Amino acid sequence: VGGVFRFAGGLDCNSIASWDGSDWHLMSSGMNNSINSLIVCSGELIAGGGFTKTGSVDVNRVARWDGNGWQPLGAGLNGVVNALTVYNDELIVGGNFTKTGGIDANRIARWNGSNWQPIGSGLNGNVYSLMVYKNELIAGGHFTKAGGTDINYIARWDVNSWQPMGS
């Protein structure tokens, strides 16, 4: 489980812990800030949130668990990750970030296993939820545009462009 907590079952765990059915366990040194979303992608646990470090390792708001510790995914992101999903076998992150490394990624990006990439021109406001429905990526949040298209708080990505979902 991840969130905004310090202890689980009396253990000082820093926002993340695992449960084996009877006891809580530490997951390395935890994170230095909130965890907003967890997902399994390609067999690995991925965490996204407001954290920037795990112990002394810079992870910049998104990290993967390798079984022993947390590892960064590339340069990470320059703002909070609110939501995670898997779409077309790639990790999708949504939040209030605008860049990953030196690449523009306006509040939504994908990790192809080795690099971060934007999804279209992104969205003009924060993304709070992500899911896949009928082979399309769905994003919900506080945004009104994707590129030049008017989109009121919920949008679908059809592999080529962002589209509104009704009015």
Specify Rg, calculated over alpha carbons.
16 Å
Q: Helicity range of the residues?
A: under 10%
For the terminal residues, how far apart are their CA atoms? 36 Å
Helix tally equals 0
Give the helices and strands as they follow along the chain.
Answer: EEEEEEEEEEEEEEEEEEEEEE
How many strands in all? 22
Q: Give the CA-based shape.
A: elongated
Mean of pLDDT: 95
What fraction of residues sit in β-strands? Answer: over 45%
Q: How is the biggest beta sheet arranged?
A: 4 strands, antiparallel
What structural class do helix, strand and pairing data support?
mainly beta
Strand order of the largest sheet: 5-6-9-10
The unreliable regions are: none
Question: How would you concisely characterize the structure shown here?
Answer:
By secondary structure, the protein is mostly beta strands. The chain is built from no helices and 22 strands.
Written account of the structure:
The chain has 167 residues and is mostly beta strands. It is 0% helix and 49% strand. The strands form eight sheets. It has a four-stranded antiparallel beta sheet with strand order 5-6-9-10, with no helix packed on it. The chain has a four-stranded antiparallel beta sheet with strand order 11-12-15-16, with no helix packed on it. Strands 17-18-21-22 form a four-stranded antiparallel beta sheet, with no helix packed on it. The chain starts with 6 loop residues before the first strand and ends with a strand.
